[in-house]
């Protein structure tokens, strides 16, 4: 089960109470106050962990609270601070305050941390209240309750290349062919419901990460189909591989399919629409695919967009496509993807 958006409740640890105590020792009749302070409550941190790939753990448990601070004791012994609570999330997680919508952090680097909520301070012991006129104070502070907030966590995949297109265009077959990833493949639309990452090795020392993403339909920018849940995962890619179905049985025009998806990208984010793109006509192994591919090639040439005609099933055209993707990524490396 792939979970890429979740809301959780986090609470800092309560502060420990201060102590009311007086020094009692033989031959010291007026020892004075010696009550220690309470300990601070634990903080709650979020940390990016490269070993995690989903927010699934937070689907089953939504409330988290750090340890409270220990109470102060006599003999000026302060309470121990509560242990911090570290919540591990996948690299690429974006953290928002649920109620205000404020962006708190974008955890895009392994080991990166953000303080989600602080622990409450501990109360003061009675030794803190001694003055020249009040040598034996009998008051101490209680520890404060820990602050709390609701967080919204959104996972945006970290991939170099995002494969986009209409449902059933052959995206999963392509990713399975060029990498070791094994997404679900079937002959019906919306087979892919969750993103899948694969590592493509170009040659010795060169590789890139490719993401098989759920299919787009008209109206995705307004939330139709998987809508924003899909489009969010394209924001970190440096290159879009736009797969177009050349099968005449679809009854759709491949050129119009290409333009429709581009309009959805532009409606969602102009920056995303401006991302470098390679158009790939798939299913060249089918009869009557060649003239449709030539029409699409002509439209891409007129728009100045690179075009490849392939068959993900037979492997036709894939070596050249992988080489061109690697070259395009090298060119785009000087312009990092929007974070």
Structure, described:
The protein has 339 residues and is an alpha/beta fold. It has 2 domains: 5-155, GTP1/OBG domain (Spo0b-associated Gtp-binding Protein, Chain: A), CATH 2.70.210.12; 161-332, P-loop containing nucleotide triphosphate hydrolases (Rossmann fold, 3-Layer(aba) Sandwich). The chain has helices spanning 57-60, 171-178, 227-231, 254-268, 270-273, 289-303, 318-332; strands at 5-11, 44-49, 63-65, 85-90, 93-97, 103-107, 113-117, 148-155, 161-164, 196-203, 206-212, 239-245, 277-282, 307-309. A 6-stranded mixed beta sheet has the order 10-11-9-12-13-14, sandwiched between helices. The protein has a 5-stranded mixed beta sheet with strand order 3-1-8-5-6, with no helix packed on it. Strands 4-2-7 form a 3-stranded mixed beta sheet, with no helix packed on it. α6 (289-303) links the parallel β13 and β14. The protein starts with a strand and ends in a 7-residue tail after the last helix.
How big a fraction of the residues is strand? 15-25%
CATH superfamily of the largest domain: P-loop containing nucleotide triphosphate hydrolases
If classified by CATH, what would the architecture of the largest domain be?
A: 3-Layer(aba) Sandwich
Number of E-type strands: 14
How helical, in percent, are the residues?
Answer: 10-25%
Structural class of the helices, strands and pairings? alpha/beta
Task: Provide the CATH topology of the largest domain.
Answer: Rossmann fold
- Spell the H/E element sequence: EEHEEEEEEEHEEHEHHEHEH
The strands making up the biggest β-sheet line up spatially as 10-11-9-12-13-14
- What's the overall average pLDDT, rounded? 84
The main sheet comes to: 6 strands, mixed
Number of helical segments with 4 or more residues:
7
- CA gyration radius, whole angstroms: 29 Å
CATH class of the largest domain: Alpha Beta
Span between termini: 26 Å
How many domains make up the coordinates?
2
Form type: rod-shaped
Low-confidence stretches: 183-192
